Amino acid sequence: MRKNLFLIIVLLNSANILAQIDNQPIKENAPNVFINCWFCDMNFIKEQIPIINYVNDRKESDIELLFTSRVTGAGGNEYIIYFYGNKIFEGITDTIVFYTAPSESQDVIRVKIVNAIKLGLVRYLAKTPIAEKMIISFKTQTEEKTITKDDWDYWVFRAGLNGNFSGQERNKYYYFNGSMSASRTTEELKLLFRVYNSYNESNFKFDSPDGEIKYTSISRSQNFKAYSYFAIDNHWSWGIEAEANKSTFLNIDYSFNISPAIEFNVFPYSESNKRQLRIAYQISPTFNRYLSETIFFKTKEFLTSQELNTDFTLIESWGTTNISLTGANYFHDMNKYELEFYTSLSWQLFKGFSFSVYGGYSKIRNQIYLPRAGATYEEVLLQRKQLETGYSYWGGFGVSFTFGSIYNNIVNPRFGSSGGSTIIISN
Q1: Where would I find the beta strands (DSSP E) of 317-373?
Q2: CA distances from residue 146 to 139, 149, 265, 381, 390 in whole angstroms, order as listed
Q3: Contact yes or no for 80/68 (Cβ under 8 A)
């Protein structure tokens, strides 16, 4: 398609179309469309594109739409929509790509999503009776082609401050965090510099035989991180990371490490929005100074560790799969190591049935920073200090089965999405 042409596609443009099909819950001669997009405003899409049938199950669809997204260097998003044809459209596929800026509102983004869906549906709708209700027009671009210059040379700067608080008669809670970052992303290079600081305070009052007792718990953490990643080819990358930390929770008064790293992607990086199998290795010389003496009688030490990470991601119309395995150990003592496994699966196994699960397990043998003095009851209950453990785990699952009408065309916003409120009274 020539760059000097604008393609304007209008799927709904006249009162005649509205009169014929908009008042019909099920559109005759219209294809069934299934949209797999967790971030889309489906009500808005249905209102803007009312001439197709929206269905609840991909196996009932004539056209499937799968949305994926990646963060761009400027902090916006690259959205990719994959179109898959089924039944009468079997074998017809298409891909639409569009971009959003970080400053664009949700309304602007959802309009771009609708326009991209319209653009992708054209080749399918052109083969149906709906084609006669489409109007396609072209506008010649008269302006001279100009080369856009980026005055910021791809640098993006961000600053943020967040906080929350809560309280009752006998306790209060405050939390604040702030960050500043500068980043630059091109096809061949990724740079990031970030500073982060957090403050967490809890206050409690309780009665005792000796009168009212007040207790205050404060935890702080600071972090500085910088990295540079460089492209070698469509499968290989290398980089270097530097990080400094302070954390009362981890007994770290000061920590600094610098880590060269290399990564291999079995699949080309150009396909990473749908599939990737990345294997990364890094070595991290680290200096630690501790707030209190550790269980190994150390107040400071210099250590070198290594880490190997494997991450597999696959995104298809039938579901998403992510599996990662990470191993790390210290060179001075190979018995001080950590292994972590994580997976998340979201699959549509058969008509109406979907299954999702996520979980992870970590075997921990490298807690060299634990304070020798241990932790008080208050510190344990308030989670102010990391406790000794040999493992950790987490997880969750979900199963759903949908049956009944396959159509999902109606938009009814009354009482919001839930249809009302639930009031819970307890003593």
Answers
A1: 319-330, 337-350, 353-364
A2: 18, 9, 36, 63, 61
A3: yes
pLDDT tens figures, 238-287: 999 999 999 998 999 999 999 999 999 999 988 888 899 999 999 999 99
pTM for the whole structure: 0.73
For tokens 């939390």, the residue is: 175
CA dist 409 to 44, 47, 231, 244, 348, Å?
11, 9, 46, 53, 21
In the three-class reduction of DSSP (H, G, I as helix; E, B as strand; rest coil), residue 351 is classed as: coil
Q: How far apart are CA 117 and CA 33, in angstroms?
A: 11
pLDDT tens digits for range 196-219: 999 999 898 888 888 888 888 889
Cβ-based neighbours of 127, under 8 Å, separated by 6 or more: 88, 89
Six-digit token string for 402: 């949908």
Two tokens at 380? 């344990």
Structural domains in the chain, sorted by start: 5-140 (3.40.50), 232-401 (no CATH)
